Amino acid sequence: MSKPLIRKRQTKILATLGPASNTEEMIEKLLLAGVDNFRLNFSHGTHEDHAARVRMIRNIEARHGRPIGIVADLQGPKLRVGKFKTGSIDLTKGMVIRLDLDKTEGDEKRVNLPHPEIISTLDIGAMILCDDGKVRMKIVDKGSDFLMAEVVAGVKLSNNKGVNVPGVILPIPALTEKDLIDMEAALAMDIDWIAQSFVQRVEDVAEARKLINGRAFLMAKIEKPSAIENFTAILDQVDGIMLARGDLGVEIPAEDVPSVQKKVVREVRYAGKPIIVATQMLESMIESPSPTRAEASDVATAVYDGADAVMLSAETASGKYPLEAVSIMDRICQRVEADTYYRGIMDSSHPETKNDASDAITVAACEVAQTMKAACITNYTSSGSTALRTARQRPSMPILCLSHSLATTRRLMLSYGVHAVFTEDKKTFDEAVETAIQKAGEIGLAKPGQRIVMTAGVPFGTPGSTNILRVAWVE
């Protein structure tokens, strides 16, 4: 087993696997370049494909002695138009096209819209957007099984392009039949997180949470305006949030996305749960070996906002330069975190201390570690709650999380600053302290003569009972 990898940053990187990254050799290179967690997109590929990638990740994990989190991203009720006889049609402003339930291939006059919920819900005057908003149409007439839509903007519409209906809550389940099958398959693969797409209401995530039944952590993807409206209730029911700005940016005004991002990141962080900022971060690197300056600034902004993780999608799944994309994202995160302005933001925006002993001890540990310039803050946890409480404080030093639960260590790898280590169960606090000192030295988080600050609960091993703080020297 090689020496565990120590990052020079606290913000984590989540990368999507796909055709450009479907070998064990490439996945390992991505890990070495800076990836902390991998995303499996269940909108594409077979269960066999995903299971093979999970096995590769676990092989790499064993070689490097570093837990790796795996996120299974469900497709959700993705809305699309049907197919055209010629593959696509040209559009002109003012032309009217019929959207109906007829599954035959379309032309310039009509095309299949295989979603009766949209037809029954939309009223005359409503807008319908296609192809990530590149095509905009206004409903001018409707019947029981069709809509008549006038083209407002757009020059081309091709097969199976996505559909968005801004400002409308559609009566469709957030978990489709495909999602239910995919979720059970993913859970059988022993993945760590389920990401639920197109969440609209708290009932959507409550259903998923019940079905998962503790077998993985649940992440809600925020990509609908209705999810923003119901955000506080949704956040309360999930273990983490992914802000998927692609579809969200189609359904809300572009000028609203930055402020929504700041609000969501802050609220999720203060709740002590991981927040991932995703979509179009380095999109030009699908084709180019370097990002635009605007993209670099976008990644930096997510870090300045205090995100736990930033995500790469097609850049690593199907792009020409997956390693370069990871490398530049890693460097941007490092550069931001080295900025005194960044540390000032993190230190000036600590969440309020909750009225319980565990949170008070955690806050105190971060303050003591900062004052004493400790090498790291160490938690011994079974559920991960102590490490999450520590991460919400955004300390400047790493968080060494020791746990006898391998599942917990993997799930925590999405969280800010957490370096999770699987270790055997300890019977006493003194044993845990000795192990923490040993592990901090072994993996390079602390050098002889440096101090670590450790929190745990007494009686030792009782979940949620953090009530003791200890300063220890690394020998």
Tags for this model:
single chain, 475 residues, alpha/beta, TIM Barrel, M1 Pyruvate Kinase, Domain 3, Pyruvate Kinase, Chain: A, domain 1, eight-stranded parallel β-barrel, six-stranded mixed β-sheet, 21 strands, 37% helix
The fourth-level CATH homologous superfamily of the largest domain is: Phosphoenolpyruvate-binding domains
Strand content: 15-25%
Strand order of the largest sheet: 1-2-3-12-13-14-15-16
Q: On the 0-100 scale, what is the average pLDDT?
A: 93
SSE class: alpha/beta
Could you describe the largest sheet, including whether it forms a barrel?
Answer: 8 strands, parallel, barrel
Tally of domains: 3
CATH class identity of the largest domain: Alpha Beta
Total of helices: 17
Distance between the termini: 24 Å
Say what the CATH topology of the largest domain is.
TIM Barrel
Number of strands: 21
Q: What is the architecture of the largest domain at the second tier of CATH?
A: Alpha-Beta Barrel
Task: Categorize the overall geometry.
Answer: elongated
Q: Could you name the ranges where pLDDT drops below 50 across 5 or more consecutive residues?
A: none
Q: Whole-number radius of gyration?
A: 24 Å
Amount of helix:
25-40%
Verbal overview:
- It is elongated, with a radius of gyration of 24 Å.
- 37% of the residues lie in helices and 22% in strands.
- The protein has 3 domains: 12-77 and 174-342, TIM Barrel, CATH 3.20.20; 88-164, M1 Pyruvate Kinase, Domain 3 (Beta Barrel), CATH 2.40.33; 357-473, Pyruvate Kinase, Chain: A, domain 1 (3-Layer(aba) Sandwich).
- It is built from 17 helices and 21 strands.
- It is of the alpha/beta class and 475 residues long.
- The protein has helices at 24-33, 47-64, 116-121, 177-188, 202-212, 225-229, 231-237, 245-251, 257-270, 293-305, 314-317, 322-337, 340-348, 357-372, 385-391, 406-411, 429-442, and strands spanning 12-17, 37-41, 69-73, 88-90, 96-100, 110-112, 127-130, 135-142, 146-153, 156-158, 163-164, 193-196, 217-222, 240-244, 275-278, 309-312, 376-380, 399-403, 418-422, 451-457, 466-473.
